[in-house]
Amino acid sequence: MLLADEVASSHPVLADNPYQPHMARIVRIYKMVDNNHLFTLRFMEDSLAHSFRHTPGQFIMLSVPGAGEMPISISSSPSRPEVLELCVRRVGRVTNALYRLRTNDVVGVRGPYGNGYPISEITGNDLLLAAGGLGMAPLRSLLWYALDHRDKFNNITLMYGAKRPEDMLFREELTALVDRTDINCLLTVDADPGGTWRNHVGLLPGLFDHAKIDPLRTYAAVCGPPVVYKFILQRLLELGFPKNHILMSLERRMKCGIGKCGHCSIGYKYTCLQGPIFTYWDAINLPEMI
Amino acid sequence: MKILKLPKEKLDLFASVVQQFGELHAPVEQDGKYVFKRLTRWSDARLEYDRTILPPKKYFLPPQESIFRYRPGEGFVPVTDGLDQRIILFGVHACDVYAMNILDRVFAGKYRDPYYQARRKNIAIIGIDCLPDKNCFCRSMRADFVDHGFDLFFYDTGDYYQALVGTALGDDMVQATGSVFEPMDAAEIDDYKRRSLNKRRAFQLDVEIRDLPEIFEMEYESELWDELGDKCLSCGSCSMVCPTCYCYDVSDDVELGSRAGDRTRSWDSCLFYDHALVGSGENFRGPRASRIKFRFYHKQRGFVAEYGRPSCVGCGRCSNACPVGIDVVQVIDRLRRVEDVASR
Amino acid sequence: MSVITIDHLARVEGHGGITVELQGDVVTDVRFDIFEGSRLLEPIVKGKHYDKIAPSLSRICSICSAAHTLTSLKATENAFGIRVSPQTELLRELLMRGESIESHALHVFMLAAPDYLNYPSAIAMAADKPAAVLLALRMKKLGNLIQETIGGRAVHPVNAVVGGFGKAPSLDQLIELRSGLLQAQTDSDVVIDFMASLPAADFCRADTTYAALRSPNLDSYYNGDEVMVFAKGSRAIVQADDYRSLTNEKAVPHSHAKHSTFRGSPFMVGSLARLTVNPRRLTGKLAVAMKRLKLVLPADNPMDNNKAQALELVNDVERSLEIIEQLLRDGIKDERSMPVHPRAGSGTAITEAPRGLLIHSYVYDDRGCIVSADVITPTALNAASIEQHMRRAVEQCEDRDEAVISRRLQMIARAYDPCISCSVHLVRKR
Amino acid sequence: MSKPTVGIFGLTGCAGDQLVILNCEDRLLDLVALVDIRDFLMASSDNQTECALDIALVEGAVLTKKDADALRAIRKRAKLLVALGSCAVWGGIPAMDRGMDRGPMLEEVYGDAGAGYDSQAAQALHEVVTVDLNITGCPIEKEHFISAIASLLNGDAPLYPKYPVCTECRMRENNCLLIERGLPCCGPITVAGCNARCPELRVPCIGCRGPIGDANPASLLAVMEEKGYNREEIVNRLRMFAPQGAPQ
Ligand SMILES: Cc1cc2nc3c(=O)[nH]c(=O)nc-3n(C[C@H](O)[C@H](O)[C@H](O)COP(=O)(O)OP(=O)(O)OC[C@H]3O[C@@H](n4cnc5c(N)ncnc54)[C@H](O)[C@@H]3O)c2cc1C
Ligand code: SF4
Ligand code: SF4
Ligand code: SF4
């Protein structure tokens, strides 16, 4: 079978069509949390599966045929290539359609897009990952990248909070990190009605009491819903973090992912081109950013 | 650049010859307004028009266009219909050419938009100079003159047109007409200068755009935005008629009884409620005031940071098309006024 | 006493039922019940500006929405003393024909025919007789194309306004319509073939009074303001302004509609009535077709209304072609509608909707707002006649088998092509 | 996979939306092959009036107790209830003067008998039961109906424009009737989807598709007042098809 995207690549006008989705197969669907499933994809074109590389923090445009296209962060680390893992929350039309697909069904992928985390800048420094709720999705790529290239970074701290234990994304994987010595993995839940949780209970900012952080030599990657930003940023600033050491991953409506459709622009920046990773300095300079 | 002259009585000849390069489109009258349209006869063309309802962008980024067709088992097949159609747009004003030059930059860069670029390649532009009316402020926006982005550009100098040849294609058009184009002499250069001066004097509007970005930043909280928010209908008219508004939306549909369907992109506007609404339910520009502010901010300030100049070219279309009379020039004037700042 | 009831009449527009009461062999009561909700559109439009009246009252019924719109416009124009251009008259007539083609094709093939052939619906019929259903869909589509082209929309036209049209169709559009109509001409024979092939429906014989618009020219659905009431041996003319003599007040408790009689006798409006009152066109092709359908006028069988609709379908195509030829001959102009200067006064208009006489009558104040509106619809005019014919059918049914009676009553009701939403709008109390 | 079961119903209305379904001439046979139409009184005399339905399409407004009961019964039978047309979605023309006293109106039309009629002020479906999907328009657009079925068959909700008629009107490059001719056009607050049908024909929009979610009728009203229309006349116009289409 010849896929349209292979044929198209030879069309004189559309040879380099940045909107062309490449077909990928869903190889695994893991029901991590209710309405937050982890989809593992592999490109149908082998060469693409081998060659696709991304930077942690980047995203792809995912097409669910007949339903639409949407931006989704790559949750897997480039240090573990050949497949893409996407952690998708079910919220609307396209995500609903995705949830109706089964393994072996096909979707379209184009990308990777966005700036990703400034790895070379972070290299040699401490790394603090702070996430709440679905914010773990983009951070997970960075987490495994850092763990797989452990020598590039100094101390690594992860702070992650969810509402209840059953809401925690990548729970098995992350609880397994708690005992490791090469990372300070701090996990918390707001409440534990089931009484099964063996880590912290309490709000996310409380985890700062359990971490040793040197603000001047640490880069903090933060991601989560607006409340998380609000409280974490406040703590980081209190600690004296330089504003350009705080890295935030932003969500905006996006229709193209490549700086054309205009939806994701904030002031004078495009989330899809100059973001989705912005520093706190950008944030205070851009109106309506958070 | 080659500069020639074309006696006015030879324009008809030129128009008939030039059709060998593509389908001829020009402004035609529609109930007292003008629209770019395919000509059925040359005499329908109205070269002394004020402005068309929609700018030429409709040719390059159509209001609605299907970009892929999805077929199960095949994937997304790009739609190429009409992309290689050759069209000649006759009679494009400088501000509109300038606007295309701006769009060129948006649709180029690291990710070239192949649909736009293909059309840009296949649609020739023959510009024509014009005199400003009471809504034009292209001079303030430095878009009253263009030095590229057209194949030919005509200046009406009374008895003849001065023709700037912008591209090889433009030159081919000149050649194809035989020897009706003539070289210019010194007196005619003076004609040009005179006309240029007259045009400059004809502007009734003047907007100062230097340090506008800074003023926008300072006036970010001005109550003007709330006033505009109360008036604005979010009807999107301004964005549709703007030669540099390029926001688009993309949607997929399916055919009856199948998963096959089209992926269509259509014009969008930052004034629509859901322009900045995300899946989590957060709306970054929910209130109408913040949406209308964004439109001005992005055009007059955001674009400067991105591309070194405002994206507004001063064509006056949005002020004309606003049912509630929101007017860019007045908005900028208000922001610049000193007492405004003092009263707050 | 025995009672036969049909709770909810299917394959008609709107909500209605039938009740028959028998005392032994004697039919004591026949009721065509209408329980469509009352939208009270006439009182609702009171006080509203003239330009909202046609769009509001068009919503009385979708299938006749073009007829309601045009009748409404004509009434308003009569009230204001506006004369529309000849081009407008032609375009309006064409719009009416488009609606008639759509409506008749829908009714004859998809609503009525399944009865004759024992199918519950056209969808079921399509499995065995796809050609007939496809023919119906083709004709319907043509009728809709005419309405879309002239009226701007197939249902509830928007282009027809007080004084004329928003925009006249372009030359290209007319040429496209003509080619569709020429195609349909070849379908005409098939329409008649199909109709002729249906089993006879002969279970109700009655002397019937007919009423239709008397056309000043050959036959028109839109022009004219005289109604002829035609009974065996007598003819009467009713002028538009005197329309209330057709609609004497008769409160009928079981129904949201009220019944009309002319000089005490029920009368039938619709295709059959139109052909009876205006037989002049029934020559040539139509005369041949009429013979094939074994239709004799004046008819004494209400089921013949289905045949009359089939004939009109053929005629509508012919007439539409004539209109288009004339428009092409005269040259279609991009004219604006007439200027409107509201004035106090009243205006009445009568036209022929697909189902028969339609009357709108308004009183305006000097600002151009409605003081009172009165709408008389064909189904309301037909209601008494439907009951009378149903009574005859029961009386003439020898074996008194309930299933047979029920089927026949439904066929009669459907032969009238009732539009029940329409019928809810009746004369005001005097 | 078995075909989804469908019922098509009309409450009080003009049957225009059901007619639009029948007007999908080119698609009708495809459509009936894809779904199992069990209950469609306007087109069939053989209906299952009790069976469960995957999709119920309901046209018209609720104007009688009987309508309300019928609607509730449909809701019970249906997995997905779709409101078809402006009457069902907004109340439509019969809801134009919803505040008025019905008693005298009934008497005016039906005389003494009117008092006994089952009649109540027009309500949109969502005011009586939960509605899953709205397809607006008076009547609905054919294409919208087909795309709704196409999407629903795949399990997706169909997408309709949320912006106003003006947007489409501008895309079609019409001369603006409000600005150029001072006509009272409701395009700025009416939801698009009709491809600016009326302004394209130089007829001002009367809002038959109902208001956009984000309408600013107060501002439109002010503009029309400036153009010399009286307030009552404009308010009437803005609420022709939807009681909530105009400011109080
Ligand atoms: C850079 C980036 C990375 C992202 N990464 C991830 C990720 O890793 N995982 C993930 O799950 N998500 C991610 N998202 C978010 C994701 O793109 C959205 O959740 C997704 O696009 C929703 O698509 P949908 O069609 O399912 O929802 P939609 O149907 O678009 O809508 C979802 C909800 O949004 C609201 N809404 C949307 N449009 C409208 C409208 N027009 N009018 C009214 N309400 C509306 C409604 O409340 C609706 O229920 C990311 C977004 C960005 C920008
Ligand atoms: S919405 Fe319009 S078309 Fe539908 S029933 Fe109501 S009046 Fe008729
Ligand atoms: S004519 Fe009406 S719909 Fe069109 S732009 Fe003007 S106000 Fe909007
Ligand atoms: S323009 Fe307005 S009135 Fe006309 S169809 Fe569209 S929404 Fe309805």
Keywords for this entry:
heterotetramer; B: 4-stranded antiparallel sheet; globular; disordered C terminus; D: 248 residues; alpha/beta; Rossmann fold; 2 domains; 5-stranded parallel sheet; 11 helices; 5 strands; binds flavin-adenine dinucleotide; binds iron/sulfur cluster
Q: Count up the domains of chain A.
A: 2
Pairing-aware structural class of the strands and helices of chain C?
Answer: alpha+beta
Order of strands across the biggest sheet of chain C?
Answer: 1-2-3
Number of helices of chain C: 13
* Number of helices, counting only DSSP H or I runs of 4 residues or more of chain A: 8
Report the radius of gyration of chain C as a whole number of Å: 21 Å
The SSE order of chain C reads: EEEHHHHHHEEHEEEHHHEEEHHH
CATH topology type of chain C: Cytochrome-c3 Hydrogenase, chain B
CATH architecture of chain C: Orthogonal Bundle
CATH C-level category of the largest domain in chain A = Alpha Beta
> What's the CATH architecture name of the largest domain in chain A?
3-Layer(aba) Sandwich
Shape of chain A: globular
Greatest contact pair? C-D, 69 and 66 residues
Strand order in the largest sheet of chain A: 10-9-8-7-11-12-15
Order of helices and strands of chain A, N to C?
HEEHEEEHEHEHEHEEEHEEEEH
The tally of beta strands of chain C, per DSSP, is 11
What is the CATH superfamily classification of chain C? Cytochrome-c3 Hydrogenase, chain B
Rounded mean pLDDT of chain A is 88
Distance between the first and last residues' Cα of chain C: 37 Å
Task: Tell me what you see in this structure.
The complex is a heterotetramer of chains A (290), B (344), C (430) and D (248). Chain A has eight helices and 15 strands. Chain A is an alpha/beta fold. Chain A has two domains: 4-113, Elongation Factor Tu (Ef-tu), domain 3 (Beta Barrel), CATH 2.40.30; 119-249, Nucleotide-binding domain of ferredoxin-NADP reductase (FNR) module (Rossmann fold, 3-Layer(aba) Sandwich). A seven-stranded mixed β-sheet of chain A has the order 10-9-8-7-11-12-15, with helices on both faces. Chain B has two domains: 2-61 and 82-202, no CATH class; 212-336, no CATH class. In chain B, helix 7 packs antiparallel against helix 10 (288-307) and helix 8 (224-231) packs across helix 10 (288-307). The longest helix of chain B is centred in the last third of the chain and has 20 residues, at 288-307. Chain C has one domain (2-423): Cytochrome-c3 Hydrogenase, chain B, CATH 1.10.645. Chain C has 13 helices and eleven strands. Chain C is globular. The chains are: A alpha/beta (290), B alpha+beta (344), C alpha+beta (430), D alpha/beta (248). Chains in contact: A-B, A-D, B-D, C-D. Chains C and D meet through helix 1, helix 4, helix 5 and helix 6 of C and helix 1, helix 2, helix 5, helix 9 and helix 11 of D. The site of one iron/sulfur cluster (SF4) has 13 residues of chain D, from helix 1 and helix 4. One iron/sulfur cluster is lined by residues 165, 190, 194, 196-199, 205-209 of chain D.
